[in-house]
Here is the input.
Amino acid sequence: MGSTELIRAADIWAGYGATPVLKGIQLRISRGELVGLLGPNGSGKSTLLRVLSGVLKPQKGQVWLDGQPLSQLRTKEVAQRLAFVPQREEVAFGFTAWEVVLLGRAPYVGWWGREREEDVQATRRAMERTDSLSLGERIVGTLSGGERQRVVLARGLAQETPLLFLDEPLTHLDVAHQVSMLSLLRQLNREESLTVLAALHDLNLASEFCDRLIVLRQGQIVADGAPSEVITPVLLARVFGLDAWVRLNPVTGRPHVLPRTLQHVEAQAGNGRRVHVICGGGTGAAWIAALARTGWHISVGVLHLLDSDEEIAQELGAEVITEAPFTPISSESLALLRDALAKAEAILVAPVAFGHGNLANLQAVEEAQRAGKRVLVADCNWQERDFTSGQAREIIERLKANGAQVVATPEEATAKLE
Here is the structure.
């Protein structure tokens, strides 16, 4: 066994009756990892945390904590090595918040049960970290759900163990405190090598803050790896029954889940009408999405490959005409564009910047308008978006002079098209 391995579970079967909840779990967690435990309700997340912390004895299998069988360790020894914050905590409601957090120091208190200065300081640090120090003199029974959750989390941190188990630690917390709590856990993980295993419901927060994700389904591990390996449309559909897109956070590179709403699904049936969108560089996303929601069959382009609008258009089922990156629009792509414009009932020009590389798109729109096509143009400062020495802005002005409708928002565009 490697010296970095902090906890290991081998062939764990566990439950609360004749029918097991966990079925043959194999798991290793190394020192210094920040691991998210995911899965739908009833998948066994809470049961697994109870078994790994020694609260629930497995029906079969063995758990090792820092190389020693968990079953052979005394309760106090376990409490000095791991802290477990359960999902539903029975708190002594007559206690103050300070007294509840101080209970986290119980594994270190001597025979006489008197706290030491280091226990007081550990309690204060934990409450400061969880933004709960101001609640210290409040009776726990008077706290809101979110305040009580922060106090219980502080008690776990006050234990100052190298391993922390958390079962739905974000329950009752508002968004700001959710992010603050996960940021704190990541900071403790990075700076103090705190090993964390947390059962989480929010897939995006888990992806953003955890380095490793373990996914349970019906008491078995079905995925274990980095967020980029685990958060996939196939897994979301198989485990959570969720129809969703997966996009990357452009800042962190972590996968984020975008659920497809009923509107998205219904829109696939379409209204039988076609619209072509001229866009690029992310300017078309909101317009394409609005059109898709109202059932339009969409074509888009010409876009250069790897353009962010290409990705959203593909995901929404649009027909996309593409060109190689950093090259002018070819005659082949221009022919496809003219064909798409001829098939479209209307053409929408999003607030895209025009340079010499994509000016042919706008020139083709003007040709189509002369042939009788309806054109809508986004209301924006076109002078700022013109990098063609005025050519693009002149075409925009001619489009408007010849009857193109100016629309300020995607919603206005869909309304006018209807």
The chain has two domains: 5-259, 262-417. The CA atoms of residues 54 and 71 lie 7 Å apart.
